[in-house]
Amino acid sequence: MCFKDIISTSMLYKKLLTPLFIFLCLHANSQSWPASDSITKPWTRWWWLGSAVNEKGLEYNLEALRAAGIGGVEITPIYGIKGQEQAFVPFLADRWLDLFGHTLQLAAQKKMGVDLANATGWPFGGPWVGPGDASKTIFKKKFKIQGGNQLDSLLVYEHPGLVRTANTTKRRAEDVPQNILGSSLLQEYALDQIQFPGKLPLETVMAYGSDNQSINLTNLVGLDGRLQWTAPAGQWEVWALFRGLHGKMVERAAPGGEGYAIDHFSQGATERYLQYFTKAFQGRDLSRLRGFFNDSYEVDDASGQANWTTGMFEQFRQIKGYDLRNHLPALFGEGDPLWQSRVLFDYRSVIDSMILSQFTETWKRWGDGQGKILRNQSHGSPANTLDLYSVVDIPETEGTDWLRFKFATSSAHVAGKKLVSAEAATWLDEHFLSTWGDVKKALDLYFLAGVNHIVYHGTPYSSTDVAWPGWNFYAAVQFQPTNPQWSHFHQLNTYVTRIQSFLQRSKPAHQVLLYYPLHDRYAQTGGPLLQHFDGMERNFEHTDFEQLSRTLQKSGIGFDFISDRQLFQTHSHGGKLTTGGLSYAMLVVPQIKVMDWSTWQRLTDLATSGSEIVFHRQLPTELPGLAGLEARQKKWNGLMASLSWRKQPWGKQAAVGKGKIIVVDDWSAWSAFSGLRPGRFEQLGLQAFEQELDSMPLAFVANRQENLMDVWVETSDRPGQVYLYNPMTGSVTLAQRAAGGGKFRLQLQPHETIIISWETRVGKVKRHQYLDAPVNIQPIEGEWTVHFEKGGPVIPADLRLKGAPKYWTTIGDSTHQSFSGTATYTIRFDVGQPEGLWQLDLGDVGATASVKLNGRDLGVSIGPKHLLELPSGLLKGQNMLEVQVANLMANRIAYMDRNNIPWKVFYNINMSAKRKENLLNGVFDARHWKPLLSGLNGPVRLMKYK
């Protein structure tokens, strides 16, 4: 910690802020890791199963997390445990709020942060959400009628009912009581969606004639559903719409939190939902709570869609200026395809506007009123995720695709947000099969995309008196103390903390704003009313938008997505595009068909002010929507006609004010003329996220390949020394420069990462030690002992090995094969000439290891490679090596399933499997698993270098 860190520490400010201190601090070693705090450390989603928590258990669980290096928790109550019903605490009841307040006090004492989900499970909803505020869907009936006739059929929609459960129990809607909300049966029923049988209310009735006539007949329908109308001459269609409950329930809901999901298109529904929290928190001290959280939209992962709201037609008219009822056939995919496209665009953009204003901005105002920040997973919604992310304080992503992450990180960058988080490592492999090394590789991809606030998914609260494996959550990575790797978890968390201590203080150094062509999708016909947006998958796969994004990614040209709305917060300054405190060289529009007039006008304005606007392959050809189409088309045509094009080898360009608009036919040919700088690391087969910290160039670099990378990196364009910050070991070293200083050497093992900075001030830092071919390799073989320390189902007998170490699952009996826990491999060995630079290679480890040599702790190795550099002088003629290995939970879980020992004791989902072969009667089962290789297999070697 130095001057800029100390200055904010009020307790030390007066004492330390002296001329002598300032002098020493400003001249201290600049090559050190930034200070860490609860935010730079990783957080975890803390599942309160059934909210069956108590004071003793809260202290135990929080302390275990703190000791492992977790900086904060996000509390999300979810479904309960069978047999623990007496311990359930209803969500937001007085006892629940007392326990929550106690948690806030404990976390503050441990210097940990706390967020709270604004629901149990997801999406927002609960027993206080009545049918009027619940999500809704629209049903339709259509009839043909000849002029002069009346409709014989009654305009009645008898819904047969529907029920979906989140467990393996099948239920009929008729068997579920309609007064189910608040019932104690809801945990057992595990309802995911419920639509009760019965008549649905009529929303509207319209008649459409062959000459494009439309007549509103709604007021002519009697209570019995009979239409009192005689059709005029000609052919007519009568359309009747009926509004019903979508019936989506809160997924994985905790006791007291079960109920309907809210209508995200209704401001009133959102406000009434949040008012319940306001009332519950009244008189409670929430000063230690950082903020509130919303999980991904996920309303429509059900039957049908939540595609309607009360007063939909009136709201549509207010936004678009015309009556949607006059265009129902086009809305539902009939008639002229172009007309369908325009009506669908208007409908989807209205839904977009509703989710943004009626839900997200309403929630943000409520959070501001509570004095709390908001974390939001916007993905999955039928709206512009970039805009939704931009409203909240911390956008949050999830998944495994770098381009998916870019939607949240782009919004953070473009909107000037300091933090962007990730629900991390949700499903890496099957249950109980992920190592901390696997998690590290997943986290590195988040960092490469710009995520700087990891939130593990997640850690179940588990009572102190519950037998192993404790209480579990259905997602696949077990971030909990019953995982044998827990004793080594701190190493992963220290690694994350070091990286985030840089990333949270820096800002990206990106070159391109890439336009998000959502309007093309909103105008798309032939599918359901609503589309849902998670990333590139489904909506943008194989489009030019995806291909151009991947081209930029592979070339190492940093970019951020930008939406139509965000363009109006972007300005042109000195030829650069500025937004969110960042500057970009240009804006690129992928090949698209549809663009609204307001967007086209904004791009022209930015070009006029001196910026470069680049269209890939073509200019847009159509305006979307019906609203004001004629006036918009006239302006569009006038602007297009005003452009004077000059042909270029790679396309064409037009001068517009101080800037220019460019159409690029051949991206590769144009790149050489563009002024864009390909990534120095990507050209060498590495991946990087480049940033700036106080004008100091910075890069997080990863070797995502399976082979050693030993390369020379171009650096002639950057002044200063090149410093290498190793986030796994904590070392800071000075890179080797080539003769003339134009390049520096970088050596990274498979999946190793490094933080590189270019610094002009020189500190007292040792030169980096590069490892060429070893001059001596000495296997460590002889008399090994394997002592089993903790775990189960029973502690196996110690093993003695001769020669090289072996996995304990390959040399022991059935007790060794079923064992999950820790064991220490120990050997005494001699080295003839111990002087010099040595490295210890553990070879194959299943799964993580901590190492001592001659009584000195060498640290923890989580993989995937297990290499440790030995401190100078530590190796002697006679030595003792101790390697404590922690394996995975898998072998003991398989033992429990084979012996029918109950541990899957959860309501709702109980447990799911990633792969179908691991399901038995719809529930995860590992009885058929062979013993997972566990222990130290080597070869263990000492390698000596020059």
How would you describe this structure to a colleague?
The chain is built from 23 helices and 50 strands. With 946 residues, the chain is α+β, with helices and mostly antiparallel strands. It folds into five domains: 1-30, no CATH class; 37-132 and 257-306 and 337-504, Glycosidases (TIM Barrel, Alpha-Beta Barrel), CATH 3.20.20.80; 509-670, Rossmann fold (3-Layer(aba) Sandwich), CATH 3.40.50; 682-759, Sandwich (Immunoglobulin-like); 776-945, Galactose-binding domain-like (Jelly Rolls), CATH 2.60.120. The protein has an eight-stranded parallel beta barrel with strand order 1-2-3-14-15-16-17-18, surrounded by five helices. Strand 43 and strand 44 (856-861) form a beta hairpin. The longest helix has 34 residues, at 337-370.
What are the salient characteristics of this protein?
disordered N terminus, 23 helices, alpha+beta, seven-stranded mixed sheet, TIM Barrel, 5 domains, 50 strands, about 950 residues, globular, Rossmann fold
